[in-house]
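**User:** Once you have settled down, spend some time on the protein underneath, comparing sequence with structure tokens, and judge whether sequence predicts the tokens.
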Amino acid sequence: MGKRSKEKYGKMAVKGEKTMFREMMRKKQELPETECIDILKTQLRGVLSVLGDDEYPYGMPINHYYNEQDGKLYFHGGKRGHKIDAMKRHDKASFCVYDEGFRREGEWALNIKSVIVFGRIEFIEDQQTVYRISKELSRKFTDDEEFIQQEIQRSGPGTLMFALVPEHITGKIVNES
């Protein structure tokens, strides 16, 4: 990503100083920030990875909502379980999402665009925010407002909403050949 995103999602490296996040090795495959954001907005699911029990990585498929206003990724789930325990112990996480890919004419190999977000988890306590984000997340799957409202009323009180606050976002296109 360009200078602007490095400033937005992580500090620029000062000569001789170690950085928190590695730079992409294959610069030609790097996606611009706008394309990364588009993938985060349009894809329905990704894999959220946290540090689980006994410090084993724990990755789970999960749907998400990218909020352009605050730049955060929002998720929801039950109020208890392995994922929640892990996030309460250690707030650092990563989220990987990728598109369906495409084939160039005459080629067998799939070209896939992927985005990885590194950041910290924050739990959303404000119920109005939980309901608002739940509606936005639901709209990625249906435009039936009546169903969305009924589902939120039914499940809302038992739902835990949390956000991944990005510290670094990177994306690339890979050819499977």
Remarks:
- Residues 3-10+21-175 form a domain with the Pnp Oxidase; Chain A fold (CATH 2.30.110.10).
- Strands lie at 45-51, 57-63, 65-67, 72-77, 92-98, 111-124, 160-175.
- The helical segments are 3-9, 33-42, 82-89, 127-138, 145-155.
